[in-house]
Amino acid sequence: MKIISSLFFLLFACVYAAHAQDYKWTMGAEGGPSITGDYGFASNFFGQQQSLNLYFSAGFTGQYYFNEGFSLNTALQYEKKGVSITIVTTDNNGQPNGTIFDSKQLNYLVVPILLRYEFGNTCKLFVNGGPYFGYLVQATGIIKSDDPLLSENSTHDVTSTTNRFDMGLSAGVGLDAPLSSRLVLSFEACANLGLPIFAINPSGHYLPLNETVELLVGIKYRIGENKD
Which residue range forms the structural domain that includes residue 123? Predict the structure, then answer.
């Protein structure tokens, strides 16, 4: 977590030191709801289909313009992800006894590094894409059951047995609408897909591969003037 935070602030320090005279950067904040799940082993655990979860993402953003169209975007975001499955239990005759709800809630610090292209006059349409890097802050396992034979509900911390790193690809489209000469209101829809490079933990269990769709609303502040 400290390493990711240090890299984030170092990136902006380097950008500012090298290009402060250009005044071609913005900083701001954004957040919004997200729909999360996984496409790994857990999505078919016990032959059950996963349920999508509604969580959120929020954080601070930064943008550096290479020229009028292209820019580099990054952020330090707090993202809540997770997966849940519902298992139907049966008796010896195959008749349903009840259900077990098994979920894992994953809280990450995430740093995306995205190349953006924007076009338009007053309002700017944009597309962006690139990798993201996440560090797991906390993981919580929740089990609930209405089966009279298995009616033991529990909530427990599973951080130590969950892979701490998440890396994948992110892509999005959106709109920047100026509120004034300095303030910009931003809307974005983006999708994030985890890669299997970090999906194996030391005990050999295949962990869920995160996938999210986010709807983000942000406010950005233009620092200095863009001379392009």
Answer: 2-15+25-223
